[in-house]
Specification:
Blueprint (H helix, E strand, L loop, with lengths): L8 H21 L5 H8 L3 H29 L1 H17 L7 H17 L3 H11 L4 H18 L1 H11 L1 H22 L27 H12 L3 H31 L4 H26 L4 H18 L10 H12 L5 H12 L3 H30 L3 H19 L12 E4 L7 E4 L1
Antiparallel strand pairs: 1-2
Protein name: MFS transporter
Membrane topology: Multi-pass membrane protein
Organism: Micromonospora globispora
Length: 434
């Protein structure tokens, strides 16, 4: 066949996916700068407001393993467009709320389901269908974009809240989600074969087979088998602590904790944005190290260093961003999602072809940990008047996660877990392997 000479459409799909992922991450980050404004206007306890964030985080994780099944049945474009509409509804309807349960419904359920449909399963589906060459690179960029977007969006949202009120910020988020929908409908194609081209890096156009159903059942089956093994629980336990000490605690409560010490919310949000910028370098470096260093050792080091940094964080809060806090931000940023590449590698090592599916469930544990930490830290703040205990507990848990990682043993053969894998690049035909 004739070689595709122009820019391959896979790159347009990757760019649109990146925009959707960064946007979804930013939409999820917004509640972090709304805690105090909502508390001031409605008088709701911070623990109650944090519960909405917890529901959001939990649904974000639990939706991810099933998102691929939805995309297989209804198509990537429909699922992502529908997810963005859910985000817009969830954010826009908050301007009419009068009770705390409505916040849980809007920011927790609607935004949680919407952003969960644009999580790791979305990344895996896009890269699996559209890329053969550069698949790892694109996966890393999309993953980093999703993690970084959550933090980079914080400063402009904080400025909107400060200057125009939280309702304006919520409406801007809703409008931003709706603006991405036409871009998704225009450029987010389902398969390379729809355009008569092979996946990027492949030579043959592969026609997708008819849908074969059962994707959700296979995901549950993989969980059932993996949950019977020791490595799964060690990985899931460590990653749950990872979620608790990143999205759940720092991502949700760093801004209000800094504000408690007199720091303006816009300054605190800017510090979290710096975490996101350094996260890019940390994620790329971690991926490079994962190819060269035992992933168990990497996870042990990452978690131990994160624990040490969180133990010293309570003494760093002040009304201004002094040099010691900036050192923490740089150090913590490099470690923000550095745990992802070695965790993915270990899932592949232990579970073979089922590694990606099992990682989806490990990621769900990550979000459950994040949800528990978001609510728990709010309870600590309401009960004790500050967040100090939450930081100390998180530091101790991180050191415990280092221990869990070092308990993992090398395995020569993958644990047999049934999973459906593609027969050929770009195909929807599946075979069942155990």
């Amino acid at each position: 066949m004739t070689r595709y000479r122009r820019l391959h459409p896979a790159w347009a799909v990757a760019v649109v996916s990146f925009v959707a992922l960064v946007g979804a991450a930013g939409f999820r980050a917004t509640p972090g700068v709304l805690l105090h404004p909502l508390h001031a206007e409605f008088g709701w306890p911070l623990a109650t407001i944090s519960a909405a964030v917890s529901v959001n985080l939990m649904l974000y994780g639990l939706t991810a393993p099933f998102a691929a099944a939805l995309m297989d049945r209804f198509g990537i474009r429909r699922v992502v467009a529908g997810a963005l509409v859910l985000v817009a509804l969830g954010s826009g309807l908050t301007v009419f709320m009068t009770a705390s349960w409505q916040l849980v419904l809007c920011w927790g359920v609607l935004v949680g389901l919407g952003t969960g449909s644009m999580a790791l399963a979305f990344v895996a589906t896009v890269t699996g269908r559209w890329f053969v060459r550069r698949r790892g690179l694109v996966t890393g960029v999309l993953t980093a974009g999703g993690a970084t977007g959550q933090l980079v969006f914080l400063p402009p949202v904080a400025i909107l809240v400060r200057d125009h009120g939280w309702r304006t910020a919520a409406l801007v988020v809703a409008g931003g989600a709706l603006l991405v929908v036409p871009l998704v409908a225009w450029l987010l194609r389902e398969y390379p074969a729809d355009l008569g081209v092979p996946p990027y890096g492949a030579t043959d156009v592969v026609q997708p087979a008819p849908p074969t159903g059962g994707a959700a059942a296979r995901a549950v089956g993989a969980l059932t088998q993996a949950a019977r093994t020791r490595p799964f629980w060690l990985l899931a336990g460590g990653f749950a602590i990872c979620g608790a000490t990143t999205n759940g605690l720092v991502g949700t409560h760093f801004v209000p904790a800094a504000h408690d010490h007199g720091m303006p919310e816009t300054t605190a949000a800017g510090l979290l944005a710096l975490v996101g910028l350094f996260d890019i370098a940390g994620t790329v470096a971690s991926g490079w190290l994962t190819d060269r260093v035992d992933s168990r050792v990497l996870l042990g080091v990452y978690y131990a260093l994160r624990g040490a940094s969180l133990l010293v964080l309570p003494g760093l809060f002040a009304a201004t961003a002094h040099p010691s806090m900036l050192v923490f931000i740089i150090f913590y940023g490099l470690d923000w999602v550095a745990t992802v590449p070695p965790t993915v590698a270990l899932c592949r090592e232990y579970f073979g072809p089922a590694g990606a599916v099992v990682f989806g469930w490990v990621f769900a544990a990550h979000q459950v940990g994040a949800a528990l930490a978001a609510t728990g830290a709010g309870l600590v703040r309401d009960g004790l008047g500050d967040y100090a205990l939450a930081w100390y507990v998180a530091g101790a848990l991180s050191i415990g996660a280092a221990g869990l990682s070092l308990l993992l043993r090398r395995r020569r053969e993958p644990i047999p877990v049934p999973v459906a894998v593609p027969v050929a690049a770009g195909s929807r035909a599946w075979s069942y392997r155990g």
